[in-house]
Amino acid sequence: MLARQLMQKDLVTIQPSATVFDAAVKMKEHHVGSVLVVEEGGKLKGILTDRDIAMTIATDLKDPKTICACDVMTADPITINSDADAESALRVMNRAHIHRLPVTENGKLVGLLSSADLAAEMKEEFSQFIGLEEVFAKHTH
Length: 141
Known about the structure:
CATH topology: CBS-domain
Radius of gyration: 18 Å
Low-confidence stretches: none
Number of domains: 1
Shape: elongated
Order of helices and strands: HEHEEHHEEHEEH
CATH architecture: Roll
Distance between the termini: 33 Å
């Protein structure tokens, strides 16, 4: 299965000038754990996760209404091309120790692939494999 088939296409984005508070509000509204930081014109600048926010607020004791998302985000995040397969995406995520991977086509942001998306796909493939094994076992006995 390819990244474009597994990725989330409804992206939650903010502009780099947004505050951390604005990002948290968007995450809550959309029930997501991250927002993509995108410039006008759609250029991906970074990714900001709920963990980034929690760590910044908890460790630096800063006001989320005054901190710019661009100061907390992961700038220039690792991306993967939409025609990459699920195994390649999983390898990239494992090597980089990340749970969210922006997906691009011709350098343009088109989706977001999460470890949960990949886990669901792997579970489905594993279930199909087990089903085939059970059918095979019935026919050989």
